[in-house]
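INPUT
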Amino acid sequence: MTTPADDATPTHAPYTADRPPLRETPDQLRARIPGWGADLDPADRPSYPRERTDLPRARWNFPERQEQTSPRERSLEHLELTPVFGTAQPLTGVAGAIRRYSYERFSEGRAAHWLLLIAADRVESTAAHWRSLASTRPDDPLTETGVLSEAHRHPVASRRGRVDVRHQPLDVLVVAGPWVAAGLAAAVAVRAVVRRR
Amino acid sequence: MRAMVYRGPYKVRVEEKDEPRVEHPNDAVVRVTCAAICGSDLHLYHGMMPDTRVGHTFGHEFVGVVEQVGPSVENLRVGDRVMVPFNIFCGSCFFCARGLYSNCHNVNPNATAVGGIYGYSHTTGGYDGGQAQYVRVPFADVGPSPVPDWLPDEDAVLMTDALATGYFGAQLADIAEGDTVVVLGAGPVGLFAARSAWLMGAGRVIVVDQLEHRLAKAREFAYAETRSYAEHDDIVVELKKATDGLGADRVIEAVGAEADGNLVQHVTAAKLKLQGGSPVALNWAIDAVRKGGTVSVMGAYGPLFSAVKFGDAMNKGLTIRTNQAPVKRQWPRLLEHVRNGYLTPSDIVTHRFPLEHIAEAYHVMSAKLDGCIKPLVVPA
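OUTPUT
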C-alpha cells in the first residue's frame, strides 16, 4: 500500500545514492565542444600535481644580488632583503614615514600593518593632489577619471538592470567627496581670515 | 617614455617617465607592443590594495620586444618578441623549485605571502608595470618566452594572465568526467575557466554573472548555461534547483575583491576598505557547492581579513584550492590547446585603447560600459 509521502519519495541524490543522470553523454559533449576531454587525464594537466620538482629550474642556486642604492623597506617576516626587488616609487614624505613605520613595526599578520599602509596611500594621494595644484600639470578630476567618455559609451543602456547601480553614487562620493570637502574647508578658512580683518 | 600613472583612487593619467634600465645582471628591458587591463587592476584603481603609491604604473599583462638585456642573460636576445608572465620569479628558491612560480620568495621584499607581480603595488614588490612604452623585466632567463610566430600579439597577451589563470582555475577545481561545474563571474578569467572546464571533462558548466553581455559571451564562447544573479532573489537557491538539490560538484570563484550582490559586503569592502575584499562570490561558492565538493578560488583579494562563511565550508567538508596561477607552467599545454583551436584567447577582446586614452580605458572597464569584457592597451 502506498501513501502520499511514498509517492513523493525522491529517486536520486542528495536523498538517495545515485547521481542525477547526465544531460549529455560524453560523445554528445565531444561533438558539441571543441577539445572536450582533452585534459581528462589529470596527468595531462600542467599543474598536476601541485608541487613538482622535475620542472626546469634556473641555472643558479641563488641569484646574484641586485645593487641596493638606498634603504629598502621589507616585511618583518623576511629574514633578509630579497636578492631582487622593485625600485619604483621609493619611500618619501609623510606617507613614506607611515609606510616605513608599518614595515618596521608590524608583520603581515597584523591588521595594523595593512591599515597603516592604506592610510599612507590616502595621505599620499591627498598630498599629491594639493602639490599638483602648484605644478604645471594640476590634477584634473574630469580627464583623469575618464568620466568624459561616458557620453559615447552608452551610459544608460550599459547600466540597465544591474544591481550595482544601487551603490554607484558612492563612487562619485569617493572621487568628488575629498574635493568638495577641501573646497568647503578653503571657503571656511578664507571667510575666517576676512572676518578677522 | 610615456606611461600610465596612478594619481589616487579612480584617477590615472599618462605621464612622461624615465625609461627603465637594467638594474640586475639578469634583467631585460622590453618595449611593450600590447598590454591589457585586468579585472584585478581595478582593485588598484579603486584604492583597495595597500601600498599603491602615487606614480605607480600598473599592468601585469603585456607582450613586447626585447630592447636591452643584462650581462648574464643567455636565453633572450635584443629584438626577440616575448610574452611575459605576470609572475616575477627567480626559478631557484624553495617554491620555484617545486613549480610554485607565483609564490617565489626571492622577488618581493614587501611581503612573504605573495610573490612578485608587475605593476601591482608595492605589496607585490614595487615593480612598475607594462601599461607603458617600456618595462623592466627581472629574471629574463626565467620568466619570459619567445612568442611563437603563429601567435598574434592579441592572443599572446592573454597567455600572460587571463587565459593561464582561467585554465589554472579549472585545474584547481579537480574536475572529473561528468562533473557539474559552476563558474562565478563571466569576466575574462571566468570565461576562460568555463571553457577550460570542458577540456577536463565537465558534464555541465553553469556561469553566473549579472551583466547580460557577459552572460551572452559565456553561452556563445564557453558553451555554458547561464544564470543572472540580478534576476534571482537568491542565486544559491537557484543553483541548488539547477543541480537537483545536490549542489555543484565544483565551483570556480572568478570574481574577487569587488564582488557585488550583497550591499553591505560590497560597500564595507570595495568602498570603505574595511575588508580585504568583498567575499560575496566566495560565500556563494561555499553555499552552492555540494558537500565534499571543491571550491577553486581565482578571484584576487587584498591581504586584510574578509567576512568569509568558513563554518559552512568546514561543515560541508569542502576542499578549497587557491593560488595565483604559475603562468609559465601552463604555457606548453596551453599553446597546444590554442593551436588546436580548443581555446581561442582573443575572442573575448572587446576594446582596444591607445595608451594616451588610459583614463577612458579604466573608466569603461570599471563602470562596465559599452559591453566591455577585455580591453587592450596599445602604446604608441
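end of record. Chain B has two domains: 2-161+326-378, 163-322.
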